[in-house]
Amino acid sequence: MSTIKDVAKKAGVGIGTVSRVITGKGFVSEQTAKRVQKAVDALGYRPSPTARKLQAGKSQTIGVFLPVIRGSFYAPILHSLYTELQARGRHMVVAFGQTVTNERQEALEGAQFLIDHGCDGLILMATALKLRDVENLIVEQPRLALLNKHFDRYAEMCFVPDHEAAGAAAARALWQLGHRRFATIEGPEISADNVLRMRGFYKELTALSVDVERIPRFYGDFMPKGGWAGARALLAGKVRFTALFCANDEMALGALSYLSHEGVAVPDDISVMGYDGLDITTYTVPPLTTIGVPWTEIVLSTVNYLLNCCYGTKLPVERNPPATILWRGSVAAVGTAKKVKQQPAS
Amino acid sequence: MSTIKDVAKKAGVGIGTVSRVITGKGFVSEQTAKRVQKAVDALGYRPSPTARKLQAGKSQTIGVFLPVIRGSFYAPILHSLYTELQARGRHMVVAFGQTVTNERQEALEGAQFLIDHGCDGLILMATALKLRDVENLIVEQPRLALLNKHFDRYAEMCFVPDHEAAGAAAARALWQLGHRRFATIEGPEISADNVLRMRGFYKELTALSVDVERIPRFYGDFMPKGGWAGARALLAGKVRFTALFCANDEMALGALSYLSHEGVAVPDDISVMGYDGLDITTYTVPPLTTIGVPWTEIVLSTVNYLLNCCYGTKLPVERNPPATILWRGSVAAVGTAKKVKQQPAS
DNA sequence: AGTCTTTCTGACAGCGCTTTCGAACTTCGC
DNA sequence: GCGAAGTTCGAAAGCGCTGTCAGAAAGACT
Question: What confidence tens digit (pLDDT) does each residue in B267-288 have?
């Protein structure tokens, strides 16, 4: 790699002049600029971001923490993040979590890593973070945005889909189709993500005078396996139901798979509703009716907000894009469906 | 952020001494070391990786290029990459491609970015790369590993599943179950990834004296949508078939979805085989029989190889972990299956 | 004492860059 | 023809760190 010195020597000027030509700041005569440019091209010189960062303190880089990058959920979010940042001419460094159980610790370490590596701002997607974590973090790096986690005290920097409203919408939709007997496959009981959407779901049903205490529930792991296990447990239980609400799409996939395996027809025998709106749900069998969370929009706003913080840009920030119900084939009105199109396998 | 100077002042020593304590190199008396350590703790000092990189030329960071991070395919690979690197105490910086059509250009730009940012080595997953691209790249950064792309000339640094053998295995397996009439949903015609596995598939069938010229094929986009379109086109065609081989799992998902939509029973009417072994294929309806590509092992070897290059470690590198057939429910022997369990929807 | 090790420590150069600062050179108005 | 103002450019400082080097301190020898 050639350095600024090489260019200066080749062009017969001082390094300051080269720098001025590169950055476009300060006065340089047309002639000199041309000579320098020629040397730059000849040597294939590109300034070192590392040296720039050390000098300037700014790196044009945003740090991102994501809990984990398996499954189908985080990939599109990462993709949006990357695309938006790229489009605004900034770079992205990612730290991931590895385990499900230790998200908080990993997020803290990840954030530390990102700060140390000179990111100008941080986007943290970590539901497990506590208020005091944020308070500590903010001291070191005030340019912070939180994805999918809300603190009243830091409402400004928090970007969260309205999970509670979305959960309520799911309940209402199912009710309006005539469903009265529900079952749910929740995520991990402690997961804030799960709690919110399920709270919305149960609250709405309560308002609709359903006795939610009697709704059979299963706590899964947000993965297809959990959905499979959940469907099995629920089917084995005594309480019959016509509508199954899953706290995320991946579990819904598992549930769909088990139901099919057992010869239970969806939606004829049981309607299944997912949550998230993963791309893949268009192509399940049957296609999954699910709650479409507007992640792309939310990510866009998050990025814009942070960029405004970091670089004084004036990009638009939208606060509450609503979730929508993606109507597919896995939910039907009660009584409408033809009976048992499919027989048990064995 | 406190700097090494602050620590030195606080501990009443020179900055060199602090550096020696931090890095553990050179002689420092127990006493002094303790004093320095105390200052470090008090100030919460952590050395700046940026400054270190500038000074040392090494960054303990590996750069990774991935074509795109949508869909379900790259996420587990990224995850493996990250986990392995993390486990070996190195960092990862990722550059992604954005479009499907411009992979080569994007890979080149991504690699450039990673080099500029001081990565000690590069892992490039870009099938579209040409030999001369690699030749150019290697001048700037000889510590290179290529994932899923093979050049005879650089066999050392290339880590590729044996797609051709895997494709052949798929053909053989289908044949052995009595299938004689095949159809295929390929990936993009120019995709090397697609070409290899399909070549293996057709070659093997030819060896088994199937006239592969008469096999109806559809060129998809490696995405569920393409699989859906492929299944529709193939079903609409005149040539009947009992086995459908899809060049990747995502298209198989789409195909499965269309077949179900049309009331075609899988595997009773048509056996469907995928390729990749995505996690999710365990939970499709029916569960998808697919070719399990040992990405985790391949990634592990790639990382180890590159780490050996960069840091002189002696980590084990395995060259050719074989693909395996993941037997699920979407493939059956011809004639075995019960007839038409399911009726067309309309 | 004087010399030689051995052990420890601070000063300082330098990684590649940006940004002052002031010197040198123009241009202009009077 | 001379000072003021405007331009242009090189020297040099400094971002935070590591590594070299030589000097200081402390023993272990003549």
Answer: 999 999 999 999 999 999 999 9
